[in-house]
Amino acid sequence: MRVWALAAVLALSGCSAAGPAAAPTSVSEMPKPSDQARLAATMLTEDQGASLELDSPGGPVPFMPSQNKKFALVSACATPLATDAKIVRAEQQTWQSDHYALAELSIQYQGIDAAEAVAEAQRVSACRAEIGSGKVDPVDVPPAPGVDAAAAFCTLGDYDMYYCFLAEARDDLAAAAEFRYLGIADAAEQESARSFTQRLAAELAHGLERA
After folding, report:
1. Based on CB atoms within 10 Å of each CB, which residue in 54, 68, 149, 199 is the most buried?
2. Cα 14 → chain centroid
3. pLDDT tens track for 151-160
4. Phi and psi (nearest 5°) for 112?
5. DSSP code of 84?
6. Are 108 and 88 contacting, i.e. CB atoms less than 8 angstroms apart?
7. Is the CB of residue 84 less than 8 Å from the CB of residue 72?
């Protein structure tokens, strides 16, 4: 009887014993997103675009430099920024509303922090004045968590076309946007464009947090 009881206990022990638990995956073992995926993650989502009353004809696509169009943080400057040479990849997306045509750019730098490039864009903002009347309106960008540097300004171009530029930096990434008012911008519309720039800055900052 004792032998039978011992065998039964051993059998029950064997049936109820659980196998070795799988070791939890550590954060360091999780697959890291590709650099291009990080760039795409920073860009405005459809919901963010809708909150800004913007429509996008398509999603983000990689920016591929060509002989005629190189990487540039500020596309309308006649002379490239010195820090443009440190750009290693970029993602682009276009948006439009009843009032604005907007080009969004997400950029990765190598060898420098993106904040250095954004600071240079702020210093050379007058280069945008070459495309029109010479009027440059600086735009204050409210501080946002995780944003290392920000720059924003608008310029009045030929035929009273109003153009605005915005860039924000976090670590090696910069989120940038350039847009123009669709039509001849009077003083009220210029003020509206500057306010839109500040709203856009808050959304781009959220994108940088996702990367």
Report:
1. 54
2. 56
3. 999 988 877 8
4. -140, 160
5. G
6. yes
7. yes
| Cα 67 to Cα 71: distance, rounded to the nearest angstrom | 11
Would you state the torsion angle of the CA atoms of residues 75, 191, 156, 117, taken in this order, to the nearest 10 degrees?
A: -30
Return the structure tokens found at 150: 């920000």
Token readout for 21 is 């638990």
Q: Are 169 and 149 in contact (CB under 8 A)?
A: yes
**Cβ atoms of 105 and 92 closer than 8 Å:** yes
Tell me how crowded residue 148 is: count the other CB atoms within 10 A of its CB: 17
For residue 115, give the amino acid letter: A
Q: What is the DSSP letter of 101?
A: E
8 Å CB contact between 132 and 117 = no
Distance (Å, whole) CA 194 – CA 197: 5
On whether the CB atoms of residues 117 and 86 are closer than 8 A, the answer is yes
Task: Assess contact for 103 and 75: CB atoms under 8 A.
Answer: yes
pLDDT digits (tens, 9 = 90+) for 44-95: 999 999 999 999 888 889 998 887 788 999 987 778 899 999 999 999 999 9
Spatial distance between the Cα atoms of 133 and 100, rounded to a whole number of angstroms: 20
pTM of the full predicted structure?
A: 0.81
- Which two tokens mark 176? 């940038």
Q: Which two tokens stand for residue 142?
A: 């409210």
Q: Using alpha carbons, select from 82, 85, 87, 70 the residue that is nearest to residue 172.
A: 87
The amino acid sitting at 12 is L
